[in-house]
Amino acid sequence: MTLKEIKESLRTDKKAVKECMEFKKTTFKTADAVNTSEIKTEIVSKALHTSKEHDTDTVLKRTIIGNTYNWMDSHGDVHLDNTFKNSIKQRGAAGKIWHLHDHEQKMTSKVGVPTKVYEQQVNWTDLGVDKKGTTTALMMDTNIMKAYNGLMFQEYKDGNVDQHSVGMYYVQIDLAVNDSEFKEEFATWESNINKIGNKDLAETEGYFWAVKEAKLIEISAVLEGSNELTPTVEAKDNQPSNDIDIEPSIDTQKALNEKAKKEVFLKLITH
Questions:
Q1: Which helix (H) or strand (E) holds 167?
Q2: Helix residue ranges, H only, 83-194
Q3: Which residues sit opposite 78 in a β-bridge?
Q4: Whose CA is closest to 118, among 144, 84, 94, 162?
Q5: What is the pLDDT of residue 228?
């Protein structure tokens, strides 16, 4: 759907936009994976060369980045500050945020035992983005278990896993449009556009979906993706726990597939 079509919908009847939002909320979203193989900063170098000091033959301690905030992704979404804050507090404390592979919702798809899920501020430049200031990364400390999946255990041990993605449900979404004719949508645009790491993409499109809250189900190791902002970094704790730290958040990913984004949006508003 083009920006022109979005505006026509807003002028005539917001029902279509509201239905689109409600439809998105029923959809299980697997966010763009974060590929850090080409990022050479210190925080990411740990993803490929994690210390093996505390590794054993059966357990590896790692920290993975599942998502980064304030980045327009291929769904046309921008995850705003504190997107997963409530979910981390509620589901994380109950041990209901999983470390899986390939977004498979199966008992046999477990990769590790999460020990801590939290949001941590990082410099944009540490993520390879030419932008001043900071954003927030969704982090998971996890004990990767050989007993769960021997192949994935070895891949992490060899430093071959550098892409991760979140599996989530939308909870609260707003539409942001770069046009003062639409008061509410323009206000959402104005309050968020300068926070976005790939602001130029949002400005080219003229709109984005502002995700204020989402329900975090899992973080998966994935083979290939389009977002280069989520690595495996060094974990800190070798024993499982329910300790959940929440720090000021900001989250999002990268949109490289324009065709896919438009197709997703069109599908949503025509159902």
A1: strand 163-177
A2: 85-87, 150-157, 183-192
A3: 72, 210
A4: 84
A5: 55
What percent of the chain is predicted at pLDDT more than 90?
51
Q: What tokens does 127 get? A: 């993520």
Buried/exposed 8-32: b ≥16 CB within 10 Å, e otherwise: ebbeeeeebbeebbeebeeeebbbb
- List the one residue out of 182, 141, 198, 223 whose CA is nearest residue 190: 182
Q: Could you report the per-residue pLDDT of 204-254, keeping only the tens digit for each? A: 999 999 999 999 999 999 986 545 566 666 544 444 433 333 333 333 333
DSSP-assigned beta bridge partners for residue 110: 100
Neighbours of 58 (CB within 10 A): 11
Q: Does residue 2 carry a pLDDT above 80?
A: no
Query: Can you read off the two tokens belonging to residue 244?
Result: 């959940």
How many Å apart are CA 168 and CA 28, to the nearest integer? 6
Return the exposure string of 199-224: e unless at least 16 CB atoms fall within 10 Å of the residue's CB, then b.
bebbeebbbbbbbebbbbbbbbbbee
Which residue type is seen at 241? S
* Helix 15-25 / helix 258-269 crossing angle, nearest 10 deg: 110
What's the mean pLDDT when you consider all of the chain?
Answer: 80
Give the CA distances from residue 127 to residues 135, 136, 198, in Å, rounded to whole numbers and listed in that order: 9, 11, 12
Q: Are 201 and 259 in contact (CB under 8 A)?
A: no
d(CA 144, CA 164): 14
Closest to 266 (Cα-Cα) out of 29, 14, 6 = 6
DSSP character at residue 127: G
